[in-house]
Amino acid sequence: MRASFGSRLTTAVSLRGPLCVGIDPHPGLITAWGLPDDPGGLERFALTCVEAFAGEIAVLKPQSAFFERHGSKGIAVLERVIAESQQAGAVVLLDVKRGDIGSTMAAYADAYLADGSPLAADAVTLSPYLGVGSLEPAFEAAEKSGRGVFVLALTSNPEASEVQRAVNGGRATAQTVVDLAAERNIGVTPIGGIGVVVGATIKDLGVDLSTLNGPVLAPGFGAQGGTLSDIRTLFGKSLRNVLPATSRGVLQAGPDVFALRSEALRTRDAIVSAAGDH
Ligand SMILES: O=c1ccn([C@@H]2O[C@H](COP(=O)(O)O)[C@@H](O)[C@H]2O)c(=O)[nH]1
């Protein structure tokens, strides 16, 4: 029986440091690496990332969209990325941002969070636009199988606030997402497996994360302009459970495996020392 996601994530971060590196095979990056923008180029790109990062970095986050754009051959590459990253000891968070009515959500949970599925990762990103309650089948599947989820709360893109900051019943939508995730994590040690996404680009947090007792994925660090200093200021006392995530900021160092790995480790070490100064 697999240990809980919170426990596996905590162990990975304590052994390897708090960094999530995104595997985002953008067409522009694939060609900048001298590869064709086709399934063969995708495979070379993605498996180079696995070779560079999976033995050293705590969490790898393949972005499903960049694999899906290559059709069934792209999905086959994604399956290999998940399996080979896990074999090398990385926690795999599949960034797929799913969300649907409960009965369909159950099928997504089967695809990404059930033992034996070829696309099962250690965790996935979920969108709460149909209501956090609609994600229940994914919460249950994750908890049952020792996996995790990260629900979008305050995303890193500038268009997000009109929906996520909207106030309903005195509470911003993002706070409702955090509070409902927190309810699922009550009493779980070392932390619960229901995480949230809060972008590293956010200037004013405006939500209370103090009772979450779960992980916070902070994408937008690097290429989107989020800095270490922003992350420290933004999260303050909640920094301990924050997982900064960057994709292009590290991937631009490719295609050389050693250059990619050293850029990821340099980024990780900078985060560790900034968190230590806090
Ligand atoms: O709020 C969010 C949620 C997810 N993302 C994803 O993270 C990476 C960011 O890539 P960079 O190259 O570091 O900008 C990408 O896959 C997004 O879909 C996010 O950016 N913001």
Automatic annotation (TrEMBL):
Pathway(s) annotated for this protein in UniProt: Pyrimidine metabolism; UMP biosynthesis via de novo pathway; UMP from orotate: step 2/2
Domain Orotidine 5'-phosphate decarboxylase: 18-263
InterPro entries (UniProt xref): Aldolase_TIM, OMPdecase_AS, OMPdecase_type-2, OMPdeCOase_dom, RibuloseP-bd_barrel
Pfam family, one: OMPdecase
GO molecular function: orotidine-5'-phosphate decarboxylase activity
GO biological process: 'de novo' pyrimidine nucleobase biosynthetic process; 'de novo' UMP biosynthetic process
Catalytic-site annotation from UniProt: K97
Swiss-Prot/TrEMBL keywords: Decarboxylase, Lyase, Pyrimidine biosynthesis
Highest taxon of the lineage: Bacteria
EC number: 4.1.1.23
Catalytically driven reaction(s): orotidine 5'-phosphate + H(+) = UMP + CO2
PROSITE patterns: OMPDECASE
Similarity-based family: Belongs to the OMP decarboxylase family. Type 2 subfamily.
HAMAP family, sorted: OMPdecase_type2
Protein's recorded name: Orotidine 5'-phosphate decarboxylase
Source species: Actinocrispum wychmicini
Gene: pyrF
